[in-house]
Automatic annotation (TrEMBL), chain A:
The lineage of its organism: Eukaryota, Metazoa, Ecdysozoa, Arthropoda, Hexapoda. GO terms for cellular component: endoplasmic reticulum membrane. The chain crosses the membrane at residues 62-80, 92-113, 119-139, 151-172, 178-199. It is a multi-pass membrane protein. It comes from Aedes albopictus. This is ER lumen protein-retaining receptor. InterPro entries: ER_ret_rcpt. Belongs to the ERD2 family. It is found in: Endoplasmic reticulum membrane. Its main location: endoplasmic reticulum. Pfam families: ER_lumen_recept.
Length: 212, 10
């Protein structure tokens, strides 16, 4: 564990909490992509299957349980409790176009061809692109509430901080995982346009609105 | 240096 990794995990946790607070306080999931949230739930379940096979640390186990539970809580709020506020007309991204290629890629490029390892790799690839339906929704509506922007910023920062963690681990421990690094770089690049808007608009107190 | 999986990460 190093400072970048810890900051990344806390940023990830903050993102999830911000999203739950936004939905709970406004009693609405408007502006949030249920498709992205489904993909995140798939990511956590397929990655954290090792909860039942390998014990790493109490921290690791607790965080995994928090991520899985909170993603299902989010889905429950969006698709059951506040279903009426869900913006499904704008949330029209076809997730099979992400799920299938990621699965095929995981079958082809993985560290070892075993069910758990392929599913772990699938989750890494899928996480890299899971935010696309959300970014697509923001681009369709042309704006995002400020708390949604904070959520996206925290979620994007998490993998960017992991990139620093991987650079650190490469030098400090000689550890590197090309699959995670490659996917993490793509994941971070996808947020760059959003980061730019967040820094130039939201941090200056303006609403995140896309140029027409 | 050896390639390892980041299974200790989240």
């Amino acid at each position: 564990m190093n400072i970048f990794r810890l900051a990344g995990d806390l940023s990830h946790l903050l993102a999830i909490i911000l999203l739950l607070i936004k939905i709970w306080k406004t009693r609405s999931c408007a502006g949030i992509s249920g498709k992205s949230q489904i993909l995140f739930a798939v990511v956590y379940v397929s990655r954290y299957l090792d909860l039942v096979t390998t014990f790493i640390s109490l921290y690791n186990t607790l965080m995994k349980l928090v991520f899985i539970t909170s993603s299902f809580a989010t889905l429950y709020l969006m698709y059951v409790k506040f279903k009426a506020t869900y913006d499904h007309n704008h949330d029209s991204f076809r997730i099979e176009f992400l799920l299938l290629p990621c699965f095929v890629l995981a079958l082809l490029i993985n560290a070892s061809f075993t069910p758990l390892e392929v599913l772990w790799t699938f989750s890494i690839y899928l996480e890299a692109v899971a935010i696309l339906p959300q970014l697509f929704l923001v681009s369709k509506t042309g704006e995002a509430e400020s708390i949604t922007s904070h959520y996206l910023f925290a979620l994007g920062s998490y993998r960017a901080l992991y990139l620093l963690n991987w650079i650190y681990r490469y030098y400090a421990e000689g550890h590197y995982d090309l699959i995670a690094i490659f996917a993490g770089a793509i994941q971070t690049i996808l947020y760059c346009d959003f980061f730019y808007l967040y820094i130039t608009k939201v941090l200056k107190g303006k609403k995140l609105q896309l140029p027409a | 240096l050896k390639h390892q999986n980041s299974h200790d990460e989240l």
